[in-house]
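PROTEIN DESIGN WORKSHEET
SECTION A - STRUCTURE
LENGTH: 299
TOKENS:
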């Protein structure tokens, strides 16, 4: 029996919710094809679309799956998988998270679903630990649960699925420069001023309220990050220009996608999301930096 799982790209942080809020895109996504094997353990047969290690202990799919196997009763279970990467590593739209999430979801289905989704998030977080040195859950949680998710707590892991308003579209620009998540975390300050914390948790709470009420204006006002974005935005060419022009074109707002270099914008229709995509092209074309733009609903 073999299974193929689609593992979507995700936008972590969603501006104000550093390490706690994330959303899943409809596209792009990685594909994990997996089957049970008579040989115990994990075998990665091949990786299409990226140059990544086949050795399970060095691969995010491998370590996520190892975490699952440690909690599974039958220690002789074996898996074979082929990974197709459609999300470029280092892009800021949850490339490692998608693969890790896809691997544990596929394995869980093949085993007859012994694990709840929250457990799968916990396993997939081990992939994030390998990829970035930090086991954050704000990409793997939406990749597994879909839509918007909130990490209420890391110890213990407590994931809350949030509602997705019906008319929300995402435009993402991915400048083809690499920003390693580990580096983008290294440069962050370890202390936060009380006045900034107050603004930030006000925004996080209002974003969640906006999602429950389908209040797009409130969602737009809440897409403000006064803690992480001021530090990381220096790594992204034309970040402020991009943000201003996309909002002028009708986007509700946006910010850095995950740890960057991708930048995301939310809009209330596909039409606006595509206009925003054109604006991104106009801002980036003169810079001489290669880039890709994706337009997607939240799914
Ligand atoms: N919350 C993480 C960070 C996401 O911003 O470092 C990384 O994709």
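SECTION B - SEQUENCE
RESIDUE ASSIGNMENT:
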């Amino acid at each position: 029996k073999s299974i193929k799982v689609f593992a979507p790209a995700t936008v972590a942080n969603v501006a104000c919710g550093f390490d706690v809020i994330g959303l899943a895109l409809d596209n792009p996504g990685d594909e994990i094809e997996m089957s049970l094997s008579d040989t115990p353990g994990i075998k990665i047969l091949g990786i299409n679309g990226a140059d990544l290690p086949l050795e399970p202990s060095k691969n995010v799919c491998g370590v996520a799956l190892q975490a699952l196997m440690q909690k599974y009763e039958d220690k002789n279970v074996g898996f074979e998988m082929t990974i197709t990467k459609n999300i470029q590593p280092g892009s800021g739209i949850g490339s490692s998270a998608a693969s890790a999430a896809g691997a544990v979801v596929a394995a869980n289905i093949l085993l007859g679903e012994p694990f709840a989704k929250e457990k799968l998030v916990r396993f997939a977080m081990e992939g994030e630990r390998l990829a970035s040195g930090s086991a954050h859950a704000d990409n793997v949680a939406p990749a597994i649960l879909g839509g918007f998710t909130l990490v209420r707590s890391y110890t213990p892991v407590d994931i809350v699925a949030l509602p997705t308003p019906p008319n929300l579209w995402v435009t993402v620009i991915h400048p083809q420069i690499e920003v390693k998540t580990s580096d983008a975390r290294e440069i962050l300050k370890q202390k936060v001023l009380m006045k900034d914390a107050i603004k930030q948790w006000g925004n996080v709470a209002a974003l969640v309220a906006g999602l429950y009420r389908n209040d797009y204006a409130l969602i737009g006002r809440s897409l403000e990050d006064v803690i992480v974005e001021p530090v990381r935005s220096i790594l992204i060419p034309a970040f402020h220009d991009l943000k201003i022009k996309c909002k002028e074109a009708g986007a509700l707002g946006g910010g850095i996608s995950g740890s960057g270099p991708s930048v995301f914008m939310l809009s209330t229709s596909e039409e606006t999301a595509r206009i925003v995509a054109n604006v991104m092209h106009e801002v980036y074309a003169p810079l001489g930096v290669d880039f890709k733009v994706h337009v997607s609903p939240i799914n």
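SECTION C - NOTES
The pocket of L-homoserine is lined by residues 12-13, 18-19, 136, 138-139, 181, 184-185, 258-259 (CB under 6 Å).
The mean pLDDT is 97.
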